[in-house]
Design a protein that fits this description.
The complex is a heterodimer of chains A (110) and B (115). Chain A has no helices and 11 strands. With 110 residues, chain A is mainly β. In chain A, 35% of the residues are buried. Chain B is mainly β and 115 residues long. Helices cover 0% and strands 57% of the residues of chain B. In chain B, 37% of the residues are buried. In chain B, strand 5 and strand 6 form a beta hairpin. The chains are: A mainly beta (110), B mainly beta (115). Chains A and B meet through strand 5 of A and strand 5, strand 9 and strand 10 of B.
């Protein structure tokens, strides 16, 4: 059973479009992180959200933590080819570990 | 500052051979994690160390896998003997003792192919 469900699994869009990807769980978490993984590289941390309802912005990326701290969304405005990659959400677990989703693979076509 | 360093970046070997993957964490980080990533199963935690001591190895698939961390700046993951189903990308990640939210820093990974 996957504790963090990410959707959609795959997304292919044209440059300039907007998109939203989701990270859902039935569990409550103290914090949640989003990572982006480019082909051939390791995941890189984008943001950590901590407070229920929190919204963080990173240029064209907007991250929101659900009010109940069970889910999160990532919205990208005017997607660019450089946004292509695997977007992973991860929640803080016990003993310094992270619980990972399977990711959303995003392709932005020029 | 140097990030997490892994070597080799690519490894192709034949079934039955021993494989050793290496990792140098970020200086000052006191936790180190070994992951395996596949399309089907995503990122799977194999083992992690805190202050060079293995804390949780419940993700290690079987006795063919072993990991060591002889000092704060070096860790190895060994597979002996290797099998085709071990083919995957293996990542090492490190974590600072000062992190409040378990934010991990990943190396570039080792792509392992077992023929």
């Amino acid at each position: 059973t996957q504790l963090l469900e990410q959707s959609p699994q795959f997304l292919s869009i044209q440059e300039g479009e907007n998109l939203t990807v989701y990270c859902n769980s039935s569990s409550v978490f103290s914090s949640l992180q989003w990572y982006r993984q480019e082909p051939g590289e390791g995941p890189v941390l984008l943001v950590t959200v901590v407070t229920g309802g929190e919204v963080k912005k990173l240029k064209r990326l907007t991250f929101q933590f659900g009010d109940a701290r069970k889910d999160s969304s990532l919205h990208i405005t005017a997607a660019q080819p450089g946004d292509t990659g695997l977007y992973l959400c991860a929640a803080a677990g016990n003993n310094r570990k992270l619980i990972w989703g399977l990711g959303t693979s995003l392709a932005v076509n020029p | 500052d140097a990030g997490v360093i892994q070597s080799p970046r690519h490894e192709v070997t034949e079934m039955g051979q021993e494989v050793t993957l290496r990792c140098k964490p970020i200086s000052g980080h006191n936790s180190l994690f070994w992951y395996r990533q596949t399309m089907m199963r995503g990122l799977e935690l194999l083992i992690y160390f805190n202050n060079n001591v293995p804390i949780d190895d419940s993700g290690m698939p079987e006795d063919r896998f072993s990991a060591k961390m002889p000092n704060a700046s070096f860790s190895t993951l060994k597979i002996q003997p290797s099998e085709p189903r071990d083919s995957a990308v293996y990542f090492c990640a490190s974590l600072s003792r000062e992190s409040s939210y378990n934010e991990q820093f990943f190396g570039p990974g080792t792509r392992l192919t077992v023929l």
